[in-house]
Design goal:
- The chain has helices spanning 2-28, 34-48, 56-64, 83-95, 99-124, 127-139, 141-147, 153-173, 177-190, 198-209, 218-242, 246-253, 258-275, 277-280, 290-296, 300-314, 316-323, 346-354, 357-363, 376-393, 405-424, 429-458.
- The protein is an all-alpha fold.
- The protein has one domain (2-458).
Length: 466
């Protein structure tokens, strides 16, 4: 009982502290991105008339100042589904028409990620690991920076991670109704931005690869259908505005080109390889587990090592930055800062500049799951699917993978803990002491880097792209 009260007190402290701190930072911020003004302006419009979901007035204002704008600024409907803007409008209704009212939405869902990560870490591993992971998300620069912008990313990430948590809870406790709740959470994510559907693909891939029995459960199948049903009102609205060509219109608004089709093709191939792993690694015998099959494979270890070496080669500079005590990652107000000159390993390299914890998080995808924890593959498939999607898509902004960051914090903590546990079990005292000192230094490095980056970047809120 005392332990539960202590944990609850700690979580509440982190939540209220994070909210208060980020509100203060937002108030002191000197600049805002165009997208922030867009969402605030639409929030005010929608608070007066819920059908006035467009950027036309603000578009004309920017055009009068000589700004070149994309065509969607003058379309009768904004390009993204409306949930985030409706939440901003609700906040404006409650707290008044001011930018602070709009930021409450991003802040709220950003700080709610802290207890959600604790619940997720506790469900998969232990309460201790859950509280450590929650603390690291509390300090995570990308999470902080995203919470301080009037952007939909924290809302999107929260519902995506919540959908995985609800699915895992139903899986672990054999409560099928939670699969339906997971589907509703995916639907809320998709109504925020279309890429919220990635969490659904993560769940589906896990079922196909590891738990095909789920595909015979009606409530699980409803999980796969519910998000699309929840999109029907939005599609009906766009149909009423644009007519039969609304799908083409949406594709054009989102710059859906031949590159996008190639991206989806590559992503489908990636998913297909995961699904076919049962054939590639001799899973035809029901008595053999996926981990055992992988360990029996003679070629897989070499493939994994080669892939790891390739990634290390492309992010070698970022690895050096990760352990430099006074390095500040590159950020800017200028658009397309990361579109040119970046290699395909952007997300592997960029995040570790913010925290060396991500090194262990990424290593966890190469190190076998020795404890054979059946819930770990769920979160790993989900996280890597998000990273692979945006890597192939070629959109390089750290906030795009915000939905994967809580998972990376959790698995990174576990990987670091497992290493400390292994070193602590050495029979020779000098090896144990050396191992413990090494881990302690690395933990210090993680905390220092988080502090240094936050002081110089997150708490200034003086950037748009990071």
């Amino acid at each position: 009982m005392v332990k539960k009260i202590l944990i609850l007190t700690t979580i509440l402290f982190l939540v209220f502290s994070a909210f208060r701190m980020r509100v203060d930072i937002f108030i002191k911020s000197m600049q805002a991105s165009i997208d922030e003004v867009v969402y605030y302006s639409m929030g005010k419009q929608v608070s007066r008339d819920w059908t006035d979901y467009n950027t036309i007035p603000y578009g004309h204002y920017l055009k009068s100042e000589g700004r070149e704008l994309p065509a969607y600024f003058f379309h009768p409907l904004y390009k993204h589904p409306p949930l985030f803007t409706f939440l901003v409008a609700l906040s404006i209704k409650i707290f008044g028409a001011r930018p602070l009212s709009a930021i409450y939405v991003s802040l709220l869902f950003g700080v709610l990620m802290i207890p959600l990560v604790y619940l997720m870490g506790s469900l998969i591993y232990s309460r201790t690991l859950g509280i450590i992971a929650a603390f690291l998300v509390y300090l995570d620069p990308v999470s902080i920076m995203s919470s301080q912008k009037i952007w939909p990313d924290t809302v999107l990430a929260f519902f995506m991670v919540l959908s995985i948590y609800l699915f895992l809870y139903g899986l672990k406790n054999n409560k099928d109704n939670f699969y339906i709740l997971s589907g509703i959470s995916v639907g809320l994510a998709v109504l925020t931005k279309y890429n919220g559907i990635l969490s659904l693909f993560g769940i589906w891939l896990y079922a196909v690869i590891f738990r095909q029995d789920l595909l015979r459960k009606k409530k699980f199948l409803m999980t796969l259908i519910i998000p699309f049903l929840m999109l029907l009102p939005w599609f009906s609205w766009t149909y009423a505005v644009y007519g039969p060509s609304f799908i083409v219109k949406q594709a054009n608004i989102h710059n859906f080109s031949i590159t996008s089709w190639r991206t989806l093709l590559y992503l489908a191939a990636f998913g297909y390889l995961l699904i076919c792993s049962k054939l590639f690694f001799n899973l035809s015998r029901e008595s053999i587990s996926i981990n055992e099959a992988f360990s029996e494979s003679k070629i897989l270890p070499y493939v994994k090592i080669i892939l790891l070496m390739v990634i290390i080669f492309f992010i070698r500079e970022k690895l050096v930055h990760a352990v430099q005590l006074f390095h500040i990652p590159k950020t800017s107000w200028g658009s397309h800062i990361f579109r040119f000159g970046e290699n395909r390993c952007f997300y592997f390299g960029k995040l570790i500049e913010y925290s060396p914890l991500y090194i262990f998080a990424y290593l966890s995808f190469w190190i076998p799951n020795k404890n054979k924890n059946q819930y770990v593959p769920v979160v790993k498939i989900y996280a890597i699917f998000i990273i692979v999607f945006f890597t192939i898509w070629g959109s390089y902004q750290s906030r795009y993978v915000l939905g994967a960051i809580p998972i990376l914090c959790i698995v990174g903590c576990d990987q670091l803990y497992q290493l400390a546990k292994n070193w602590g079990s050495y029979s020779k005292k000098h090896l144990r002491v050396l191992g413990i000192l090494t881990i302690c230094f690395y933990v210090f490095l993680i905390i220092w880097k988080l502090y240094y980056v936050n002081i110089n970047l997150s708490f200034t809120n003086d950037m748009c792209y990071y």
